[in-house]
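@channel sequence for tomorrow's demo:
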Amino acid sequence: MLGSLFAKTSLKPSALHLFQFNLQRGLHSRNKKAAEFLAQGFSAIKEVDRVMDKSEPNSRLLIPLLRKAKENFELALEADNSNAHARYWLSKLHLKYHVPGACKAIGAALLVEAADMGDAEAQYELGRRLRYEVSFLKIDIVIIFVLI
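structure tokens (generated this afternoon):
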């Protein structure tokens, strides 16, 4: 009796194969969650740009929107740390807008990281900023040589 039971179970192929498991499922859910946070942050930035035209850049009306955008971009990075686009938008938030707790050095570091990760917009922005700052550096050097 027991022998026939063991024979039946040993003849059945195993129902669990390695190929049945989707190993990318966790990665997909992280990307999806990060994309949701990016969309929410981007909509807050669009609202800031819309309101900024009608008010001052340091207006108190913009602070809640900027905090919301910053929080969403940080949550997108927590959900998926390899998201270059979230790094780019967070760097842009630090560099362009007057966000509470903004730091130009952090913004520059995030921009360089996003450019290194291959984000085309970040590479363009980094090149534009480097070209702009190098031109000022050349002007400063020329002024120093003229003064000497």
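heads up for whoever presents: The helical segments are 2-11, 25-52, 62-79, 84-96, 104-116, 120-147.
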